[in-house]
Amino acid sequence: MNNSRDSVSLKRYWLSGMMPPESITVWEHAAKYVNLSKKISSFSGYYNPELNPMLNVIMHLLGPNSAVERTVLAKGTQCGGTLIVMLLATFVANNCPDPVMIVVSDEDERDEYYHKLTEFLDCCIPLRPKLKSLKYLNKTGVVQIPGSQIYISTATVARSLRGKHIKYLICSETSNWIKNCQGQGDPFAIALSRLDTYDGRKKIYAESTPTDPASNIDRELRKCDHQLTMYWACPHCGYYQSPDFFQDMKWSESKDESGESQPDTDSAYLVCQNPVCEIKRIEESDKPKMLSDFKLGPIPWLEEEKKKRLLSENSRKRIHRPGLESEDLLNFSDLDMLSGSVGVWYNPLQSPLGFKSWKVILKKFADSERYHEEKQPFWNNDLGRSYDGTVSEIKLSDLTENLENYSRKPLPVGCHMLTAGVDVNGSWLSVEVTGWGRDKESWTVDYVDLPYDPAGPVAWDKLDEYLLQRFEHCSGQKLRISSVAIDSGFMTQQVASYVRKHLGSGRNIFAVKGSPTVGRPIIDKRPREYKKEINLTFYYVGTNTAKDTLSKWFRVKDPGPCYCHFGSFLPARYFKELASERLESEKKATGSKRKWVKIPGVRNEALDCRVYSLAALEYLLQIKDLSKICELGEKKYSESGRANTKAA
Ligand SMILES: [Zn+2]
After folding, report:
1. How far is the CA of 262 from the centre of ligand 1 (A)?
2. Which domains are present in the chain?
3. Which pTM value belongs to this model?
4. What distance in angstroms lies between residue 196's CA and the mean position of ligand 1's atoms?
5. What's the CA gap between 357 and 608, in Å, rounded?
6. Tens of pLDDT along 81-139?
7. CA of 331 to the centre of ligand 1 (A)
8. N or C: which end of the chain has fewer CB within 10 A?
9. What are phi and psi of 472, to 5 degrees?
């Protein structure tokens, strides 16, 4: 862009007594002129561009030679984000007499930025002689350097965001900004509006650690024309990849004093994503090598989000990680081809040695598994991603994504045992019948409401009629329901008389009562008694444990162990009811306890029924062996001769 420098700005250079800007990028400028003191950086000396190459990517885009107008950085903490802000401000102050505005969240941060900035300016060798006349006007927050002005504004004062014409706008830690600035709306939008004069030659840089999906850095990142992250090369096979904490990080575990398994934080390593890599294991000490050989490519979690949005609710397609060929990726030198806006995600797993370590990330992960309130800080600070803690951990999309075309008649081939869960409501009974296969793979076979008042006998006769039906399996066999758990927390008397009637029938019909006690097993093995006049034995169901288990199973993506199949015949409300609760944490002196809480205004019978049906399975597993039952079922299926003619 330097070729198109107009006469007006040349005049400004002349008036300011400065030389026209050197054609140099921000990081080249830092390496050439900025000699960091021990006071401000643990890496003192001239800025070393080889140390943290991801910073160079961003600084390259911010330089006057790049046609990119807007750069957005989402990052974790301690990756060098503030360093970019300082080096950019130093670059502008020394190299081009353009007004810069840095916007920070509040006055405290403004003071901190001022001090840091003056220290950085002092490290810029050519600027030093000019700094004697450096003036800091506390009220307006302007750092005045001959030929240049750096305004430090706060997002809390609308007036400070308006009025001045600036070329460089730097927005720091935008997720911490207030949402509405003095009744005039989003401070980010107000700050942007002042750049209009420089249309076409302006530079905007926004950076933040994300908070939740509504945070402005997430919004801006998604809006960008290009989204990039680092793909580094495996030191063994050279395959370029963007590491994912949940899929690629591995570690060994050891037991703590209380006998609980804890990650051994020193043992963290990554597994290469290349299926044919021979060594696979990537150590943290391999980082310098990997950081010297990288490309840039799409942000994997954003790509997954896009794909999910594209898939229709009924689609059965599964989502795979983007399989990228290295020619699809950009080289550092390709950055010059970009224009418009670029969003960058700095993956904290790729922080250089001396910045955030894998050990720290794993430690934070272990804490977040123990204490629910640590979850969001872990996602934000250590994964550099927003945390969606407000929605249920049972996601409607997880349930409906893989709807299948199986029907209840005949039962699908893998399903060899049936259980039922019954929820007793004010004027009706809800029932789920679940089919079980090997390793607790399951199929929802039916979900019905019996619209009869449980206070009277009709409801219970209808229930019995329903539970006595046989379900035909595709082998031709007819399966009956092997076990039924009925909620007895409501209308206990009526439940008692129904359950008593079937004692010794061999149908394993029993009463349960939900218990929110954290850590209680899905079904408590010890039977309990209601008080004498009710005369009923019941079992406690650990509802929190059951819901934790189900939420985990619902997220399993591939058929097999614990996978939950849902048929397209199930009513839409079934899925809404399954996703009707969310995890919340309750603070206690000893830490916090997580518990499942109903989302106001949403019915939850289907989730209760599913929990009871799971309890019925666990009850049955005390006396039966599921894998033997499946083996027998499979044998009958192959003997029936239908295996080759009928697809499940
Ligand atoms: Zn490899």
Report:
1. 28
2. 2-223 (3.40.50.300), 396-639 (3.30.420.240)
3. 0.62
4. 48
5. 43
6. 889 999 999 998 888 778 888 999 988 888 888 888 888 988 999 888 777 655 554 44
7. 19
8. N
9. -80, 130
